[in-house]
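Support reply, case 0932

Customer input (verbatim):
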Amino acid sequence: MISMMRRRRYTSGDSDQPEARYFRIVVFSFIGIALLMFLAGLTTFLISLRGAEQTLVPDVRNVDALEALVSLQERELYPRVQLRFTGDPASKGQVIDQSPAPGTVVRAGRRIVLVVSEGAVVSHVGSFVGRTLDDVQIELQTTYSRFDPLLRIADVMYVFDDEPAGTVLEQDPPSGFELSGPTDLKLVVSRGQDVPRISLPAYTGLPYTEAITLLARANTPFVFQILSPRADRRPGIVISQEPEPGTMVAPGTRLTFTMAPPAEIPEEHVFGVFERTLPDYPVPVDLRLDAVAPGGDRSTLFEMRHPGGPIALPYVARPATDLILYRFDTEVLRFTVPVP
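Our regenerated output:
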């Protein structure tokens, strides 16, 4: 009996020994795995604390966009591209700005904003023939409101034509011309249909006061030039006119006259010429020149519809008389006759 019990005890001990060994292996394995996971996590944490490698932002302005992308990738930097129009057609496809600025120290993996030019807003000359000059001017002003203009109206030539006044008839450069830099636009614009021509009457030989009355009545602008007295020059009489009598001209053509000063001037009066250059008016305006004597007496020297430009009118008046020029009954000029 005793021997049988001993045999069972030995048998039971032999069977428990492998199980204990397996249990220890499993426990140690879990401990090892946990230790490895801890070490891996600690290593990752330490690496993250160290951070990415630092690098210098390169200067990629004024270079081709593709070349700029390669330059950033070589430094492990990532681009963010923004497109923008410029006033320079030659800059198309180039980097015109960047952020952060060149030379900035950043960590690898940082995004760099690149502003890439799409070129000029308008790269070719448009078609302006058949449009009005006002429309063309407004379009160019609107197109280049934010940029230096590549195309500007440099010269406008007006000609008579059956097209309505203000219509563009020709343009240079032509439509479709490629803009590579600032370009001058030349236009030929219609004045409208040609106006009838008139034959100039003869004013030579007339007293200058009578000539002025006839000119004002015909709304013909004029300029008088005063010559020095001479034996062959009749005082106060129109000596010559330009254009000459009989010349076919458009109504409103300015005439130039010559005369010698009048021989007889009333006592306490002086002879002179009222000379001014007025603005060129789009349409003739009502002009009137009044003389207001020191005592308050008022007289009108001439009154007519005038296109503007030079005016030279002989007068005889007392010193200190005010010569007042009115446009549509509004005073625009005042001249006081000097005391000799």
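We compared this against your earlier run and they match. Two observations from our side: Confidence is low (pLDDT under 50) at residues 1-6, 8-15. The two ends are 170 Å apart (CA to CA). Please reopen the case if you see a mismatch on your end.
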